[in-house]
Amino acid sequence: MNARLDLRNIVLAALLTALALLPVYAALTHNLFLLTLFTRIVILALAAVSLNLILGFGGMMSFGHAVYLGIGGYAVGILAFEHINSGFVQWPVALAASALFALVIGALSLRTRGVYFIMITLAFAQMAYYVVAGLARYGGDDGLTIQKRSQFFAPLNLTDKTQFYYVCLVLLFASLYLVWRLVNSRFGLVIQGARSNDTRMRAIGFPTYRYRLVCFVIAGTLCGLAGALLANHTDFVSPAMMYWTRSGDLIIMVVLGGMGSVAGPVFGAVALLVLEEALSGITEYWQIILGPLLLLVVLFARGGIDGLLASLSLRLKIMAKVRA
Amino acid sequence: MTLFIEQCLNGVQFGLLLFLLAAGLTLVFGIMDLVNLAHGSLYMVGAYFAATFAAWTGSFVLGAVLALAATLLVGMAVEVVVMRRLYGRDHLDHVLGTFGLILFFDELVRLVWGPEGLSLPLPWWLNTSVTVLPGFDYSAYKFSIIVVSLAVAVSLYLLVMRTRIGMLIRAGASNREMAGALGVNIKLLFTLVFGLGAALAGLAGLMQAPILTVQIGMGENIIILAFVITVIGGIGSIRGAFIAALFVGVVDTLGRSYLPDLMRVMLSPNAAATAGPALSSMLIYLLMAVVLVVKPEGLFSASSK
């Protein structure tokens, strides 16, 4: 729990500092594209951090996590469509709707295990996808354009790209702090205990089902927040936000970054989206490189980026000891 | 009434097609304990091969046979290069690794065949209708899909339950190490099983090809349906997959054609226009959720036997 000055933390601190200073660089170089790209990266990192809470720490392999991106996004989109533009209404509604959805599907899904859990979370996400695609009033399949971003008090203006970026970044930092506090609390230890051995945890008297459900709801709510941000970022919501391949993208971010490490998903989101951007600059057929790359990560780098950093820092430490 | 019979037959046809996909999935699932999302890619590859080979040879049947052989080879190659390394890993690794494979296959197909879809025209002798009952005609092609799929289902059952190789497959499924210790070449067996699953997916793809267009991403939608079927039927159970596939096919087809009308009777036209299509699309997912909540291991779980 103590923050040590090792390679992992140095790289993490460097990344977070770079994220914080990015708008300055973008303003100096007039690179608006960079700012837009990184706003997206920060928002999806927030979604990945929330998924990691259940996937990495809770061992709950949800394959429908993008559904909350859609629910949070549609809460904002639908309210904006009905001319309710206040962020003080939109965002709490987005969070509450996501939490409620997570509570219902969590209560049903957590009765199953393993592959069945993967599939039932997927099924619920697909159901939500089809419900939204059927909302003719709100654009149906084609999605819904948001005319006005969420309105907050006077100086805060989400249409300002720099301000919006910082809002997203602050929320990302806050959620990282929340997850970090959570996994190191008694609650977090019960969740991780249930991941390793659920039967044993129940035998020593923890009602693990309830703990896991609460964890599932917290993760869903956080991801709903990311959805509200994403809707404001793109000024558009569509059912594609919650298609199953989007849930797959989120899982990739978590595993690429390193499961079960609080900041891992941030590494993963940055790495995946920057890689996508870079590869698509090289060739139109960039997925032909990305796909096998993912396979290689699965086969040879289980801990993801965070795991690589950890083993690297261990090696450095041993080398230092050998020298001394 | 004839319309209703036709819709039922359409449902059976769709269900049998789904069974071909789900059978491969559940075999690989049950025997190698592997979640293979890329099964839909093999379905797509089968359809692309069929369209290409049929155009080359000028014969639908010859094209289909060549496509089946080619998909079998692709499947075996994928098993040797990738899947073999994923056995024994946890399911998250399977999901992620095979997700990477989907990206790869989609892009490879785009590279080879281009972004536009292909079409696979039917030969004249399938592009007619047959008289199933007096006064009731049905598309000859859809009817032949039913016949072919049923024949495949029966031979699959016979292969697994009545032949030596089927016995080895079942032995490998129930205890991999023990079967290996008794001298069964497990590696080769698994490659064959995976190839068989791939060929079944390819068959489903090439049979679906003349009805829909052959396009990139065609596997992504249907693979989720195939997963729903494996889960409803119970993972690893071919019999369960068969029953669940027929059930899902019929429920989905009838739901799509009759639910909007039914809703119109009960709700205001406006609400029905919104709820009808949405509800009929989610019907099977609802079905699966109910099955899993009531029987968390599926209807015919192979492991609970």
Could you walk me through the main structural features you see in this protein, from its secondary elements to its overall organization?
The complex is a heterodimer of chains A (324) and B (305). By secondary structure, chain A is mainly α. In chain A, 75% of the residues lie in helices and 1% in strands. Chain A has one domain (7-323): ABC transporter involved in vitamin B12 uptake, BtuC (Orthogonal Bundle). Chain A has a two-stranded antiparallel ribbon with strand order 1-2. In chain A, α3 packs parallel to α5. Chain A is globular, with a radius of gyration of 20 Å. Chain B is an all-alpha fold and 305 residues long. Chain B has a domain at 9-215. Chain B has a two-stranded antiparallel ribbon with strand order 1-2. In chain B, β1 and β2 (136-139) form a beta hairpin. Chain B is globular and about 65 Å long. The model of chain B has no long low-confidence stretch (mean pLDDT 87). At the A-B interface, α5, α10 and α12 of A face α4, α9 and α11 of B.
Order of helices and strands of chain B: HHHHEEHHHHHHH
Cα-based radius of gyration of chain B, to the nearest Å: 20 Å
Number of helices of chain B: 11
Q: Which structural class fits the helix and strand makeup of chain A?
A: mainly alpha
Summed up, the helix count of chain A is 13
Counting structural domains of chain A, the number is: 1
Low-confidence stretches of chain B: none
Quaternary state, please?
A: heterodimer
Sum this structure up briefly.
The complex is a heterodimer of chains A (324) and B (305). By secondary structure, chain A is mostly helical.
Key descriptive features of the protein:
heterodimer; A: 324 residues; mainly alpha; ABC transporter involved in vitamin B12 uptake, BtuC; two-stranded antiparallel ribbon; 2 strands; globular; B: 305 residues; 11 helices
Could you outline the blueprint of secondary structure elements for this entry?
The complex is a heterodimer of chains A (324) and B (305).
Chain A lengths: L6 H23 L2 H26 L8 H16 L5 H23 L4 H20 L10 E2 L15 H23 L2 H11 L1 H6 L4 H27 L1 E2 L6 H14 L6 H19 L4 H14 L3 H20 L1
Antiparallel strand pairs in A: 1-2
Helix pairs in contact in A: 1-2, 2-6, 2-9, 2-10, 2-11, 3-4, 3-5, 3-9, 4-9, 7-9, 10-11, 10-13
Chain B lengths: L1 H31 L6 H19 L2 H22 L9 H23 L15 E5 L2 E4 H23 L1 H11 L1 H6 L4 H23 L9 H16 L4 H29 L2 H26 L11
Antiparallel strand pairs in B: 1-2
Helix pairs in contact in B: 1-5, 1-8, 1-9, 1-10, 2-3, 2-4, 2-8, 2-9, 3-8, 5-6, 6-8, 9-10, 9-11, 10-11
